[in-house]
Amino acid sequence: MDEHPMPSERAVVVTGIGSVSALGVGGGATVAAALARGVPAVAPIRAFSTDGAASHLGGEVGDVGDRLGPDEARRLPRVSQFAVVAARLALADAGLEAGAVPALGIVLGSHWGDFRSSETFASGYLSRGPLGLSPLVFPSTVMNAMGAHVAMAVGARGPMLTLNQPGGAAEAAIVRATAFIVAGRADVVLAGGVDELCEVLFREIARLGITSPADPGPEGCRPFDRRADGTVLGEGATLLVLEALPAARTRGARIYAVVEGAASGGIRAPAYRAPHNARRDPAVIRRALVQAGRQPGEIGAAYLTGSGSPTLDACELDLLEAASRPAPLPPVTALTPFVGDHAGLGALRVAVAAIVTLGQGRVPPLPDLRVPVRPDLVPSRPGGGSEPAPRGRPGGVVLVHGLAPGGSEAAVVLGPAGGAA
Predict the structure, then answer these.
(1) pLDDT for 254-312, tens place per residue?
(2) CB within 8 A of 138, min separation 6: which ones?
(3) How far apart are CA 182 and CA 89, in angstroms?
(4) Closest Cα to residue 388, out of 33, 17, 38?
(5) Strand 57-59 versus strand 233-234 pairing type
(6) 269: in domain
(7) Nearest by Cα to 189 from 169, 173, 208
(8) In a domain, 1, yes or no
(9) What's the pTM?
(10) Is residue 315 part of a domain?
(11) CB neighbours (10 Å) of residue 49?
């Protein structure tokens, strides 16, 4: 699939969006309204104490139990609650009824899985030995537990896959889901990512120096800015309904965007570090463009990972610049400053790219870009991201790119809904 244009008879479209993030809970309209406000939703963490930790900010999600049945709210771990709510929202947004889609597939990415259940299970053993091991908790410690909970909640009976890596998991899930549809293994797939903040994980990631420190401060996620000093963690889930175009046409579905190209791969890099040779290896982005039948100059805007890590962000800009040649760098944005870094973010970027950029011709500005690392990046106006957003290149496609520490990479090229006509 990677080396050839996508077959038109198996074109893949985005027909539904469901999102649970610090910006809010809802479908496509909720996502668009939240981004229109232009105000980041990261704040001091309230769910647990961060006393003594290097960082204190996070993109937290409130209680979603009121969107579940009483038994689900009691039984499901919190991270699975996020995924189930997002899945149902996405299906409803697509006009599909849970349980009524033959061979519905699920491809879910996660950076950390249900770490809270793993901690609870391990703590039981450490405190009480074998008698402390809970058979009720153990099923949630496996990485595909969230996907299994989603499958049971929505009656999915098609292919199911969970992808686990610390970065870019949702983007990789979207690439794999697209491949399922192109290969004819499914007509409809729920694809995206989910993660949850918990105290042990937060403290360890902060201790490793990955998050932006409060001292000397100010703490915050500032991708592509010379003041960047780390990321801010978040939580939530965003799932998309990806559908074969003929199936979507048959039922008269609203189409947000066309997935014109989707590729994944890796760049050789030290473990959990940014690749050093990105300038010479933009192969993944180029493969996605080849699938889309597009030239580099047709990238109208790019939604990048933008984690706030100076080295990883510089690597990502290098990749985009190399893949865009001979055209100049397109308008660039990232959503990490709005909701914090988590696995659902890759799917949220696809949702925003489809609604805001392809649908409205706008690119959400980075909310706190004051000292750009490159002269062709437009700084924010004083007061944050409420100013009018720059427009993408007219008629261009949108690139959504994910890059993880260690070099795992995925690229999705989105075209306008009119391209599916």
Answers:
(1) 999 999 999 999 887 665 566 665 556 899 999 999 999 999 999 999 999 999 999 99
(2) 121
(3) 24
(4) 38
(5) parallel
(6) yes
(7) 173
(8) no
(9) 0.93
(10) yes
(11) 11
